[in-house]
Amino acid sequence: MSEFDRHTQIEYLLQQRSFITVNELADILGVSAATVRRDIDKLDDDGCVQKVYGGIAAINDAHRRRAIALPFTDNRDIAVEAKRAIGREASKLVREGSLIVIHGGSTCFHFGMHIADRNVRILTHSMPLAAYLSEFGHCQLTVGGGDLHREPGILHDPGLEDHTFFASQFFVGALGVGAQGMMESQPLLAHLARHFADRVNEVVLLVDSRKFKEEAPLVVLPLGRVSQVVTDSGLSDADAKMLESQNIHYTIADS
Length: 255
Description:
The chain has 9 helices and 17 strands. The protein is of the alpha/beta class. A hairpin with a 2-residue loop joins β2 and β3 (55-57).
């Protein structure tokens, strides 16, 4: 298939779907991922499509784009340096001997890696994080039980939600962040985030700066429920002012 034919096919596919991953395009077009990435770069330079993390999206006239919930294994390896920096900075907020809750998602996973050996008790429903901490960590670990929801890698049993607990901090990510609050597209992640937020002293939002340009259909929590935000140096002046206008303390992680 020629380059012209590939580009035509990609544009046709984006008329049917708003987002396609690099791996999906490689399978559909029968070429390597490297070839797909070169095609994406050219189409993006020509203004025909929008290059996004993990793939390609249809052009959207809005300043904010609709966020795509990628599989955990894909999302974990996107913006890794920013997520590691955020995790490292957020680890400074953890108090020795405390009980904290860590939500699902890739940024929270990187944060959990940074505190794996700390003197804390971690409560999480994230199967990937629990597996990592079990094998490599020395912290105390409590894992939420129930059925495994492979995407987004969460263990959940509604019958266990009546169990009473209280923690000092809840570290949570989001698919998108805006003036209206932190947003998700996965109902289970949204439900559990609200559940945990009601049982902690402090909600700490861990998001890389891309998330301030993305929207998702479910508003999980208003920003007024967030104690502080840890993000990276890509945070725009407009988004910084938006956080300041809502009296949200934010920290920029040095990557």
